[in-house]
Amino acid sequence: MTLDVTHDPAARSWVPGADAHPDFPVQNLPLCLFSAEDDRPRAGIAIAERVADLPALLAAGLLAGVDEAVGELLFDRLNELLAAGREVRVALRRALFALLTDPAAEPRAAPHLRPLAAVRLHLPCEIGDYTDFYAGIHHAARVGALFRPDNPLLPNYRHVPIGYHGRASSVVVSGTPVRRPAGQLPGAEGPRFGPSERLDHELELGIWVGPGNALGQPIPVGEAADHIAGFALVNDWSARDIQAWEYQPLGPFLAKSFATTVSPFIVTPEALAPFRCPAMPRTPRDPQPLPYLLDPADQQAGGLDLTVEAWLESAAMRAAGLPPLRISQGSARDLWWTPAQMVAHHASNGCNLRPGDLLGTGTISGEAPGAAGSLLELTEGGKRPLALPTGETRTFLEAGDRLSLTARAERAGLRLGFGPCAGEVVG
Fold this sequence. Notes:
10 helices, SH3 type barrels, 427 residues, 2 domains
């Protein structure tokens, strides 16, 4: 992806607080779906602490170079906008950047910007399918070591992108409470049914599918980036005790289908163009990807240089006025497969991906202990509790705990973020 004026770190916006905003400077411009009062849900763009009303800006003739027909794609859900592909996204980005950096445009445009705190943010898309990959190799190795100390990674891991089909109906937007699930729990005298006692989080990136493919038509890895409309944060909440009992022989089921939290903002591939990096390197002992997963351009710049973090806040911490505790910090560089490889593999058997489908990367963990993206890893399966500032400890999540994920990209004077991905445990 080529860089242009919209990536200029020196660009300044007339929107209050936009310059050097930690998440939403004018160089980001992520998509979202919002409503205010009784308004129909509509497409927006986040800028600082405001959201720009895209239908209103277009109707007012303030988005130069954007086809008026795009207005039909901006209500109720963003699936059709994502389906329109890169050309439409780029036109919107350039028009918005020009508008929001032109002081002369402020009097006409400012009335169409609303405070984020005053609107309701929705799931951006109607999600037809949700698939979760397992591309964090350090997570896979660390979790594997808990159960198979002599053989942490199974033989297929380095060869094939592992994934499972999740439950699209229980994907919820950031801020939605997460009710503790019940299920069969293993025990020495056989299973019993009850609430999970080992509720966990997973720190992941989400990939929003754009145009997609027809049934029976694979997506070549060299074209897979054209089918990625944007990125988000994903928390694939997991009931580890239910999972341990049910996952053989077919993998996760009720342990993960009760809730998956996604951040409300779609950070576009264009915004992330300055933060591309090489795919995770293989050692001479590692197998090279099979030809259908191997593209030179993707190997050179198909990765994402993002810092990802998880923050924990207990009810007692909130009552004491204490800030959330960062419990992990990792990097998206530690994904064994690139987003393009995940998309290409998913479609390699002819599976049809559709606009608005959501893919999770799997838990992002680094090699260092503090870079683990789940409590299962951080506490070594519950053996090493985390100490909280209140004197409390945690092995797994408890009622009132609020778990938040963040992500940021920083390079050459430019920083942008993803907004919140948070949920509070109920029960």
